[in-house]
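We emphasize that the prediction below concerns an isolated chain of 127 residues; any contacts that depend on oligomerization or on bound cofactors are therefore not represented. The input was used exactly as deposited, without trimming of termini.
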Amino acid sequence: MSQSRSLPPDSDMLVVRPGKWTLVIVTLLRAETLRFNELKRVSGGISQKMLTTTLRELERDGFVTRTMFATIPPRVDYELTELGRELLELADSWRVFAARNRTQVEAARQRFDTSGGEPAVRLIHSA
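Result of the prediction step, given as a token string:
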């Protein structure tokens, strides 16, 4: 029988686990409110299902608000909350990091792919 580990008191802290499209959607909402179809069009390849899932997660976590209008056809607008604007700062930092380290990441991928995904073997001799 396995014994459960005791979790530290602050273990219930918010954990943001962004999906592939999370930061894309957040950055698209940077300057303006967008409708669902506008987000789909400008996002560059996200499926309708994935966009719906991502927006729901962002709304659930308080990063995005959804405003529905009783029109025909129905209109739904999405915009960042104050919390979402703070997440946008992280997205911008990630973009800067990715741009600064692009060459290193591409080189690492090339080495990995060339090796067939096998790790380099390192022999460490202890004294």
